Amino acid sequence: MATPIPPAVPHPTGPSPSRRRGGVAHRVGWWRHAVALLCAVFALIPIVFVVSAAFNPRGTLGSTTLWPSGAGLENFRKLFTSTDYGRWFGNSLLISAAAGALSMFASACGAYAFSRFRFRGRRAGMTGLLLVQMFPQFLAVVAIYLMFTWITARYPGIGFNTSWALILLYMGGALGANTWLMKGFFDTVPKSLDESAKVDGASHAQVFFTIMLPLVSPVLAVTGLLSFIGTMNEFLLANIFLTDPEAKTLAVGLYGMIQEGNRDANFGLFCAGSLLMAIPIVALFLYLQRFIVSGLTSGAVKG
Amino acid sequence: MTVPPRKPLGNPLGTPLGSAGVLAKALLLGLALALAIWGAFPLVEHRDWLALAVLVAATVLIFWGYLSPRRIPAKYLLPGTVFLIAFQVLPILYTVSTAFTNFGDGHRGSKESAIHSIEEASVSPVPGTPDYRLNLAVPQGSSPADGPLVLVLTDPATGKERAARADTGTVTDLPSRATLTVLTDPQAARRGAELAALRIADGPGHIRTEGLERAYVGAPARSYDASSDTLRDATTGTVWKADGTTGTFVTDDGERISSGWRVGVGLGNFADVLTNPTISRYFGQTLLWNIAFAVLTVLITFVLGLFVALSLHHPRMRGRWFYRALLILPYAMPAFAMLMVWADMFNKDFGLINRLFGLDVNWLGEPWTARAAVLLVQLWMGYPYMFLVATGALQAVPDEVKEAARVDGAGRWTILRKVTLPLVLVALFPLLIASFAFNFNNFNAIYLTTAGGPFPPDSPMAGATDLLITYTYRLAFGGQGAQYGLAAAISLFIFVIVAVISLVSFRRARAMEEVNG
């Protein structure tokens, strides 16, 4: 994916796009449709190819054409009978959901502290966070590998070939950026809201859980779901961590499927697997659209 | 919004917690304690006292933070901080410290373990000793699973038997096997690891075993002499001197033993990256392409995305929603899978591109076509995102501004060039920088399509489409012997480059906003 950043689309403001007063509204040029169609074709070619390969009964790369020559569910059937695809799917969903939810919660807590309290070390903490989140976690891949070698020797339950290892790792890696992002959102919630609640006797925990969290929940959802998608696609660390077929995630499992001379033979299988994997992502995308419009007000996406 | 019922202003110091709150707190603290205790056992077992001290300190810190009604910020910061330190800060610090060492294959452990492995590797049978047949046994009455091992050694020439006992460490003649229980093959196989680690002294050497059926008396040809800090080979007479600056044993003519140890090399790795001709050539070339890749990716995706957004940005155009849905599809497909599908579409023999256009181009086999192919894939993956954000930015340009320009007599083209585009650019500049920083390290985009290739015939280390991150990955994990120290040094270079570019650009972006806004 070209960018990990949430698609911070300032939502369409108001219902009245340039209705011109008095002037003669110029016609919709045919070129607009031509450009849109050309780009749509460019966007669709690889996707049609994947669909065609997934339903291609022969299942090889060499026999796959852009337009399917035949259709069968052979690849999908094989996916669930001859590979651990179902397990990989479960692992991926579990890891992505757990890492997303945990890091959202921990970042929301941190962001609340940075946004609402003044304490010693606040500035230093925020600067440190900014620096740390600029260091991409996978640059430290060697250190992470050695660290988890140490952990695996002591706690096999959260070591290599477990989902927990990746959950902890992804969660830790997302914390810095998410905390910064969310502090920005908390800052846009008026302070008078939580102050009046405090006057009414609410504790800091009540303010956090019953006032702040519900107010930023659309943003939480967008950020969380996007991190979910990013985690589903993460390959580098997962590929090092997971070697046991049963522990693999979709990315690692599907990658292994077309390695070592199986690229041609298993291509249909691979495409069928990718297509099924797209379903939760596309579903989340459709779900996200509503939140992007309602949640990311133009003020909140700045910075 | 419903207003919560006003509570009496109670205790002004501590904030009153409901009974549910107290219960939750007790439960969570109990869970933390249980986790800490669970974590302590393996540390005690491995005698990791330092790690145990850290664990105890962290637990105390957690209780200190949550048991007091004050220290409210700490309550919210602790969970994130613990994980941030464990899985982000520690790896970074470790990477930084590794960058100053020669850590890698052949330089993994301490000097003692290097000497040990060199001596072990030079063990050979002592001349004049027999090549024994081996049987494993335990004293009669002991369990075959964990009784003390007895190695029954049969001299094939004489048929005489000797017994090497693990518990006493002695070798004695064995007139009869009556006092022993000989293990069956499966029983013996289960104790193979134990057997391999067993060293029983016998005459000039130790009893060594080969598999479960052979044994001999072996002695190391190479031995370490601490007083002169040298390693000597008794059969050839070669002497290697320990070189503490490189962590290797070297002869006077410069011959090295491949097993060395880990030493600090100061700025050696960084100097290597910049000056060592075999490394710096690749580094420079890779860095150039890396920058070009990131800049071009942002540029082409942005230009196409903006162009499409402009085309669709017309209030009365039909089918906008339909087009939009189609155009966003590439963004929704699983990226890593689509990268590999693209790689197959560029396949020379049965790839879709060659078949579709009737070409016979070895796309991923030639440096420049491979680079073009990688950029085309990036364009496909990236422009839907740029289209999305550009559409948003276009819609956010206020109509009044355009109206004012029109009143001043500006034509459509002029308004677009002088009013709309600058406003859109200012709004999207931070996103473009973020996109650049991401693509600078876009591991998947290269590793899953070309894997860095094509490689020049003379060097398999750096390919034409390699980014620094894929090059680093190969240095550390490639088949050619891991060079963790060098890889860590390059990681730091990457970090500094990305951080500097991001910081400078963001500062510029802020300045721009101030000017325009």
What's the SSE blueprint?
The complex is a heterodimer of chains A (303) and B (517).
Chain A: H1 30-55, H2 74-82, H3 85-116, H4 122-134, H5 141-154, H6 163-188, H7 191-199, H8 204-233, H9 236-241, H10 250-257, H11 267-295, H12 298-301
Helix pairs in contact in A: 1-11, 2-11, 3-6, 3-8, 3-10, 4-6, 6-8, 7-8, 8-11, 10-11
Chain B: H1 19-45, H2 49-67, H3 72-98, H4 111-121, E1 123-125, E2 132-139, E3 150-154, E4 161-165, E5 171-173, E6 180-182, H5 185-190, H6 192-197, E7 200-202, E8 205-210, E9 214-220, E10 222-225, E11 230-233, E12 239-243, E13 248-250, H7 268-275, H8 277-312, H9 320-332, H10 335-345, H11 352-357, H12 367-396, H13 399-407, H14 412-440, H15 443-447, H16 468-477, H17 484-516
Antiparallel strand pairs in B: 1-9, 2-3, 2-6, 2-9, 3-4, 4-5, 7-8, 8-9, 10-11, 11-12, 12-13
Biased composition (Pro residues) (chain A): 1-15
Domain ABC transmembrane type-1 (chain A): 89-288
Keywords (chain A): Cell membrane, Membrane, Sugar transport, Transmembrane, Transmembrane helix, Transport
Give me some keywords for this one:
heterodimer; A: 303 residues; mainly alpha; MetI-like fold; 12 helices; globular; B: 517 residues; alpha+beta; Periplasmic binding protein-like II; 4 domains; 9-stranded antiparallel sheet; 4-stranded antiparallel sheet; 17 helices; 13 strands; 55% helix; disordered N terminus; Maltose/maltodextrin transport system permease protein (chain B); transmembrane (chain B); transport (chain B)
Task: Please explain how this structure is put together.
- The complex is a heterodimer of chains A (303) and B (517).
- In chain A, helix 2 (74-82) packs across helix 11 (267-295) and helix 8 packs antiparallel against helix 11 (267-295).
- Chain A has 2 domains: 33-78, no CATH class; 84-259 and 269-301, MetI-like fold.
- Helix content of chain A is 68%, strand content 0%.
- Chain A has helices at 30-55, 74-82, 85-116, 122-134, 141-154, 163-188, 191-199, 204-233, 236-241, 250-257, 267-295, 298-301.
- In chain A, 42% of the residues are buried.
- Chain A has 303 residues and is mainly α.
- Chain B has 517 residues and is an alpha+beta fold.
- Chain B has 4 domains: 24-98, no CATH class; 109-122 and 221-265, no CATH class; 124-220, Periplasmic binding protein-like II (Beta Barrel); 274-516, MetI-like fold (Orthogonal Bundle), CATH 1.10.3720.10.
- Helix content of chain B is 55%, strand content 11%.
- Chain B has helices at residues 19-45, 49-67, 72-98, 111-121, 185-190, 192-197, 268-275, 277-312, 320-332, 335-345, 352-357, 367-396, 399-407, 412-440, 443-447, 468-477, 484-516; strands at residues 123-125, 132-139, 150-154, 161-165, 171-173, 180-182, 200-202, 205-210, 214-220, 222-225, 230-233, 239-243, 248-250.
- In chain B, the strands form 2 sheets. In chain B, strands 1, 2, 3, 4, 5, 6, 7, 8 and 9 form a 9-stranded antiparallel sheet that branches.
- In chain B, helix 8 (277-312) packs antiparallel against helix 14.
- Chain B is elongated.
- Chain B: One of its GO terms (biological process) is maltodextrin transmembrane transport.
- Chain B: Belongs to the binding-protein-dependent transport system permease family. MalFG subfamily.
- Chain B: It is a multi-pass membrane protein.
- Chain B: Keywords: Cell membrane, Membrane, Sugar transport, Transmembrane, Transmembrane helix, Transport.
- Chain B: Its main location: membrane.
- Chain A: InterPro entries: BP-dep_ABC_trans_perm (IPR050901), MetI-like (IPR000515), MetI-like_sf (IPR035906).
